[in-house]
Amino acid sequence: MAIQIIKANDYEELSALACKKIADIITQNPSAVLGLATGSTPVGLYKKLIESYQKENLSFKEVRTVNLDEYIGLPKNHPNSYHTFMKNIFFSQIDILESNTHIPDGTATDLEEEGLSYERLIQALGGIDLQILGIGHNGHIGFNEPGTSFHEQTHLVELTDSTRKANARFFPSLNDVPKQAITMGIGTILKSKEILLLASGSSKADAVKQLLSGEVSIDFPASALKNHPSVALVADKEALSLM
Ligand code: GLP
């Protein structure tokens, strides 16, 4: 299936378009299940959603969320965990119930069981209505690095050096970036009813070009999205500059 392309002039507009999409879904279905992502790209979207909550009465009271991934070994309250990121950037500023927010536990002693139980949880919630994704420079989605089977469910991954370097900006030093993570698999992501992929800035232009004009291959994880019936890419001019 072709990926629908939604062009934005800049990051601000990209964030507003993604916000509108989520607000429409919540208005139609107040208890929607949103799949959420971390990284810099969705931060503007979360800001816009907070504004909609504050100024337009958009309520998250019944919304359920499942995040894509978490680092292994970082306790929930660690400053660099995705639990902390989501809490600070988004959850603590809206009316969502903490018990309705879910993120894989990177400190679970049995990580295989944690993956299975995360899959059971998503199923029990009725599946993901809309999954938000960013894209890594090497085409990773969630933490699914090149070479990952498109059928994979929530699982433990070894992070590539390039991903650790790209994410080092959030940590005191590269050495502090965990070497492993637990992530929804591409199989998990593809089960979402709808997917919204966000790409901003010239550093993502190569990845966007590869996604839109390259083959479907496990060497470029985001290409799996071409096998999904309802994917939209919201990208700004810079991210689309090589197209
Ligand atoms: C991380 C996250 C991904 C994210 C990617 C891109 O590796 N696990 O979910 O899409 O980084 O991040 P950014 O938006 O900061 O470029």
The H-and-E topology, N to C, reads as EHEHEEHEHEEHEHEHE
Task: Categorize the overall geometry.
Answer: globular
Tell how many strands the DSSP assignment holds. Answer: 10
How large, in whole angstroms, is the Cα Rg? 17 Å
Which strand-content bin applies to the residues? 15-25%
How many H/I helical runs? 7
CATH class: Alpha Beta
Contiguous runs where pLDDT drops below 50 for at least 5 residues: none
Please write out the topology:
Layout: E1 4-8, H1 11-28, E2 33-36, H2 43-56, E3 64-67, E4 69-71, H3 82-89, E5 101-102, H4 111-124, E6 130-133, E7 155-158, H5 161-167, E8 180-183, H6 186-190, E9 194-199, H7 205-213, E10 231-236
Parallel strand pairs: 1-10, 2-3, 2-6, 3-5, 6-9, 9-10
Antiparallel strand pairs: 4-8, 7-8
The structure holds 2-amino-2-deoxy-6-O-phosphono-alpha-D-glucopyranose.
Structural write-up:
This protein is an alpha/beta fold and 243 residues long. It has one domain: Rossmann fold, CATH 3.40.50.1360. It has helices at 11-28, 43-56, 82-89, 111-124, 161-167, 186-190, 205-213, and strands spanning 4-8, 33-36, 64-67, 69-71, 101-102, 130-133, 155-158, 180-183, 194-199, 231-236. The strands form two sheets. Strands 1-10-9-6-2-3-5 form a seven-stranded parallel β-sheet, covered by helices on one side. A three-stranded antiparallel β-sheet has the order 4-8-7. The mean pLDDT is 97. Bound molecules: 2-amino-2-deoxy-6-O-phosphono-alpha-D-glucopyranose (GLP). 2-amino-2-deoxy-6-O-phosphono-alpha-D-glucopyranose binds at residues 37-41, 68-69, 134-136, 142-143, 163, 167.
